[in-house]
Design brief:
alpha+beta; two-stranded antiparallel sheet; 4 helices; globular
Length: 173
């Protein structure tokens, strides 16, 4: 049993055992994959006018911004695009490899570790970036801001034993 953790800005306590068991279902994984592909297609087609905000969970009342991250698959060598919540930190784009508090990191995170050159689309603008995993000092500064953006990140952290990685993407020179 994991220790209880404070829940972001609300101060409520998250019970790590409250994690929905169905999240581990292959059916849920398939639904998430289909939803991700649909969101990516709609986002591209509308240049982010649709699919550019996340309005689920703690973002229901305070929508969180969505970008499209394109990485190179570490095994396939093919472009892989996923919609992700993001935080602007000056010119940098900050991403969270939360995967809803699942026990493993998402595939895009492993792709970024293997090849840090990525593309990010925000609305109709796409740019090239270089990604790195935040060190502890960056993490200490960014995590509270990320939880302010999307409070459920703290819930996800309570649901997993792993440290959820933060990825900072800096515009490529």
């Amino acid at each position: 049993m994991r220790a209880q953790r404070s829940h972001g800005q609300t101060g409520a306590v998250v019970d790590p055992n409250s994690r929905p068991g169905q999240l581990d279902s292959p059916v849920v994984a398939k639904i998430i994959k289909i939803g991700s592909r649909a969101n990516t297609a709609v986002y591209r087609w509308t240049r982010g006018r649709l699919g550019g905000s996340w309005r689920v969970g703690s973002a229901l009342r305070k929508p969180a911004p969505v970008c499209l991250l394109t990485t190179v698959g570490r095994k396939s060598g093919r472009d892989r695009t996923v919609p992700l919540l993001y935080l602007r930190d000056g010119e940098d784009v900050v991403l969270v490899a939360s995967q809803g508090g699942l026990p493993s990191n998402p595939a895009w995170y492993h792709n970024v570790r293997a090849e840090p050159r990525v593309r990010i689309q925000i609305g109709g603008d796409e740019g090239r970036y270089t990604a790195h995993v935040a060190d502890q000092e960056e993490r200490d500064e960014l995590w509270p801001r990320l939880v302010e953006l999307y409070d459920d990140f703290d819930t996800y952290a309570a649901w997993t034993d792993r440290v959820i990685p933060i990825v900072v993407c800096t515009p490529a020179a």
